[in-house]
Design goal:
Distance between the termini of chain A: 17 Å
Helix content of chain A: 10-25%
Oligomer: heterodimer
CATH topology of chain B: Thiol Ester Dehydrase, Chain A
Mean pLDDT of chain A: 96
Number of domains of chain B: 1
Order of helices and strands of chain A: EHHHEEEE
Mean pLDDT of chain B: 94
Structural class of chain A: alpha+beta
Low-confidence stretches of chain B: none
Distance between the termini of chain B: 14 Å
Shape of chain B: elongated
Largest interface: A-B, 38 and 34 residues
CATH superfamily of one domain in chain A: Hotdog Thioesterase
Number of helices of chain B: 4
Strand order of the largest sheet of chain A: 1-3-4-5-2
Number of helices of chain A: 3
CATH superfamily of chain B: Hotdog Thioesterase
CATH class of one domain in chain A: Alpha Beta
CATH class of chain B: Alpha Beta
Low-confidence stretches of chain A: none
């Protein structure tokens, strides 16, 4: 991706994720996160009242950065990233990650992006924004 | 405002956690990259860490008796709040340079703000924690601001 090919309204390639117990186990093991809502189904449902095992919030944030970096294809760098976890999601759901360009500054090479993780009901569960800087050769 | 935040509680703003220094090993970067489903080879091979890797690197490594029955560790930087149920949170991160394999990083965490807002179903407490991550040479690697909401 090069800056001359970027325009406001352009969409980033989407990716679907269907996280399973194995991925969620690995993710929480890497963090050293023992929160039982992520692996103990009776606890998550009976005690905390969730409908299933909860996908870890920062994992959803990570997916937004993957969407940005795969689109950038090493022709620039992520300089700022922001997201919030608004709605929970659960093992068994398929989640779609995507984004679009909201501003382009050809002088600085900086591009602003809107990002979102959506669930199967098309609800935005994790909105975000990012700023990337393309290599302008200066 | 329902005045949930006492002066004593607000006096915690500015409190700092002891600095933490960790090594970003290639092995741990690879584990993180596989667990998160990365597809870029530089991440899967552990040459460079993905942008959210620092969340794992600086997650508290606590001992078993420091966990509450739900498996959550208590963040010693935080005071006891009058509301305890955590709602959605968010992160804002400024990146200054990438994290490369086998680099030592130090995190400085500060409780930067505590404030109250009226939500649809009652009062909410917001708190913010800023984490500055620097490299061995003292240069800034990234700055992260976490906002959490309690109800």
């Amino acid at each position: 991706m090069s800056l001359v090919d970027v325009s406001v309204g352009q969409t980033l390639p989407e990716r679907e994720y269907t996280p399973d117990n194995i991925q969620l186990f690995f993710y929480n093991a890497v963090l050293w996160n023992a929160h039982r809502i992520h692996y103990d189904l009776p606890y998550a449902t009976d005690v905390e009242g969730y409908p299933g095992l909860v996908i870890a919030g920062p994992l959803l944030g990570d997916w937004l950065t993957q969407c940005v970096l795969e689109w950038l294809d090493a022709d620039g760098a992520l300089v700022r990233f922001e997201y919030s976890n608004r709605l929970a999601s659960y093992i068994g759901e398929t989640l779609t990650v995507g984004g679009s360009v909201t501003a382009v500054d050809t002088a600085t090479g900086e591009v602003e992006l809107d990002l979102a993780v959506r669930n199967e009901a098309e609800e935005i569960i994790t909105p975000g924004t990012a700023r990337v800087r393309f290599d302008t050769g200066r | 405002m329902s005045g949930l935040l006492s002066e004593g509680l607000l006096a915690n703003i500015g409190r700092q956690a002891p600095p933490r220094t960790e090594l970003a090993t290639r092995r741990d970067i690879r584990k993180y990259s596989i667990a998160t489903g990365q597809r870029l080879r530089k991440f899967l091979e552990g040459d460079e860490a993905p942008p959210m890797y620092h969340v794992a690197l600086f997650w508290d490594v606590v001992e078993l008796d420091q966990l509450s029955p739900d498996g959550v560790s208590i963040d010693a930087l935080l005071p006891k709040f009058p509301l305890e149920r955590a709602m959605a949170g968010g992160l804002k991160i400024d990146y200054h340079q990438p994290i490369l394999a086998e680099s030592w990083l130090t995190a400085h965490r500060t409780l930067s703000d505590i404030y109250e807002k009226e939500g649809r179903s009652g009062p909410l407490i917001f708190y913010e924690v800023v984490m500055e991550v620097v490299g061995e040479d003292g240069r800034a690697v990234l700055t992260e601001k976490t906002t959490r909401i309690l109800r």
